[in-house]
Design brief:
Blueprint: E1 9-15, E2 18-26, E3 31-34, E4 37-38, H1 39-42, H2 46-59, E5 64-71, H3 75-93, H4 98-104
Parallel strand pairs: 3-5
Antiparallel strand pairs: 1-2, 2-5, 3-4
Helix pairs in contact: 2-3
Length: 133
């Protein structure tokens, strides 16, 4: 997280095993670059694009150039990690955005993740078939 002297605001967003390092720069027109690709090519569905754009829709701050480096996780988790990073960056940019984004739950890191497999079980909780004899 940097100051405004560097001309960009950086924040990290996470979801499951996905991590997004997001940089926002005030611009005349909004644009997205994710891992050197456009938003429409990286997130092909409208649902995932709307997940990423939700913080801007809520705060009415639509004029930013967003660049992100995303690693790990699936494509949906990456979209949610990027949304988390954008939300954090918008709060750094303007503290009044916090009162808009916090009640919606965008500032909270979603702690749900896949449970680990335990010894003696087939999956996290699935036990092998039991037979009486």
């Amino acid at each position: 997280m940097t100051t405004k002297t560097n001309k960009y605001i950086e924040a990290v967003g996470r979801r499951k095993t996905a991590t997004a390092r997001v940089r926002i720069v005030p611009a005349s027109k909004s644009s997205y670059t994710i891992n050197d690709r456009d938003l429409a090519t990286y997130f092909p569905t409208i649902e995932m694009r709307s997940i990423v754009e939700k913080p801007f829709a809520l705060t009415k701050d639509a004029h930013f150039a967003v660049s992100a480096k995303i690693k790990g996780g699936g494509i949906h988790s990456q979209a949610e990690a990027m949304r988390h990073g954008i939300t954090r960056a918008l709060v750094i940019y303007d503290e009044s955005n916090k009162s808009i984004l916090k009640p919606v739950g965008l500032l909270k890191r979603d702690p749900r993740a896949k449970e680990r497999r335990k010894f003696g079980l087939k999956k996290a909780r699935k036990a092998p078939q039991w037979s009486k004899r």
